[in-house]
Automatic annotation (TrEMBL):
Binding site for [4Fe-4S] cluster 2: H239, C242, C267, C273
Annotated PANTHER family: HYDROGENASE-2 SMALL CHAIN (PTHR30013:SF7), NIFE / NIFESE HYDROGENASE SMALL SUBUNIT FAMILY MEMBER (PTHR30013)
Cellular localisation: Cell envelope
Cellular-component GO terms for this entry: [Ni-Fe] hydrogenase complex; cell envelope; ferredoxin hydrogenase complex; membrane
Biological process terms in GO annotation: anaerobic respiration
Record protein name field: hydrogenase (acceptor)
InterPro entries: Cytochrome-c3_hydrogenase_C, NADH_UbQ_OxRdtase-like_20kDa, NiFe-Hase_small_C_sf, NiFe_Hase_small_N_sf, NiFe_hydrogenase_ssu, TAT_signal
Length: 363
């Protein structure tokens, strides 16, 4: 259905790819690997290619609240753009404080224009937690001085679907760490609508772009875990896919950073690795063009994709202890039992197309 709509961006995806020296063959390889990542049968690969090409029909509003902009930075700061970063750029980014050229009143107008033009049809991505204490006054954005709380509620009201990008937007992040004087919360706790959480500090570009692609293809949220994270990305513990897992099972541990065990690639549990408590696909997807991830680089996972990890996982270079490990294993079983399943939210092709249809009827 999206195919019949006019693109909101001028440059077709194939031109963008060829400008970056990415061949059609490489693109098809990417669609195959993204299809596998999304836990879909490989027959969905051509559909994914089609969804990527028509992503320029989907309006995206990206808000920044209480955060460091690290999630955006991680997505866009590549010396060589990947297909994931090019696709992010290809989706029609209507408002993004870091990337748009507009400033001041013009920026405010862009946001209002996007919300008015595509009511019920735009994707809303939020980066950052929402300060709620004293009616949200600890965060104001833009020349009108609206609070982040006001802005996110207004934008969420008419969004077809909402994605919290990163741990701050998902669960409050470092702003929500004790004693949390600003009363910061995750987006899902303030907007009263279903929100998909992409935990991580930052989340990988694959998890961001894969989630957007899933929406565009199916018009609904993917299966989610008990914290509303997509199961295709957060369904396994870091520990389960870690290349040092054999060392853990063999009882071979780094005792202090820089010791002989560290040189041999032993398990980092005793120097604080929280991989056994953390659900994310870092070991399989890695970062920076799939080159590395923290444990491969020699430091333990700090559990950045889990709620309250600043409080719950500290001290980051000391183990939590076996008792917690066992209780976490019990949590793993619960996650399977209470998984939310696929939730229809009326997004993607249907939602966007109906907005365009209304626009045409009214014009
Ligand atoms: S390094 Fe961490 S994630 Fe890897 S096996 Fe050891 S405890 Fe598990
Ligand atoms: S390895 Fe752990 S701390 Fe590092 S990004 Fe992945 S989940 Fe976060």
């Amino acid at each position: 259905m999206l195919k019949s709509l006019p693109p909101l961006k001028a440059t077709p995806l194939k031109d963008k790819l060829s400008k970056q020296g990415i061949s059609r063959r490489e693109f098809m390889k990417w669609t195959a690997s993204m299809t596998t990542l999304l836990a879909l049968p490989i027959q969905f690969s051509p559909l994914l290619a089609e969804a990527a090409e028509v992503a320029d029909r989907v309006p995206l509003i990206w808000l920044h609240l209480a955060e460091c902009t690290g999630c955006s930075e991680s997505l866009i700061r590549c010396d060589t753009p990947t297909i994931d970063t090019l696709l992010f750029d290809h989706i029609s980014l209507e408002y993004h404080e870091t990337l748009m050229a507009a400033a001041g009143w013009q920026a405010e107008e862009n946001l209002e224009h996007a919300m008015e033009t595509y009511p019920g049809g735009y994707l809303l991505a939020v980066e950052g937690g929402v300060p709620t204490a004293d009616n949200g006054k600890y965060l104001t954005v833009g020349c009108k001085g609206h609070t982040g709380l006001h802005i996110v509620k207004e934008a969420a009201d008419k969004a077809a679907a909402i994605v919290s990008v990163g741990t701050c937007a998902s669960f409050g992040g470092v702003q929500a760490a004790a004693p949390n004087p600003t009363g910061t919360k995750g987006v899902g706790q303030v907007v009263g609508k279903p929100v998909i959480n992409l935990g991580g500090c930052p989340p990988s570009e694959k998890n961001i772009v894969g989630t957007l692609m899933y929406y565009i293809m199916f018009g609904r949220l993917p299966a989610l875990d008990m914290y509303n994270r997509p199961k295709w990305a957060y369904g396994a513990r870091v520990h389960d896919n870690c290349e040092r897992r054999g060392r853990f099972d063999a009882g071979e541990f780094v005792e202090t950073f820089g010791d002989e065990g560290a040189k041999q690639g032993y398990c980092l549990y005793k120097v604080g690795c929280k991989g056994p408590y953390t659900y994310n696909n870092c070991p399989t997807e890695r970062f920076n063009h799939h080159t590395s991830w923290p444990v491969l680089a020699g430091h333990g996972c700090i559990g950045c994709s889990e709620p309250s990890f600043w409080d719950a996982m500290a001290d980051f270079e000391k183990p939590l202890g076996r008792r917690d490990l066992h209780s976490l294993d019990a949590t793993a079983d619960r996650i399977g039992a209470v998984a939310l399943g696929v939730t229809a939210v009326g997004i993607g092709a249907h939602a966007v197309a109906s907005v365009f249809a209304n626009k045409e009827d009214n014009s």
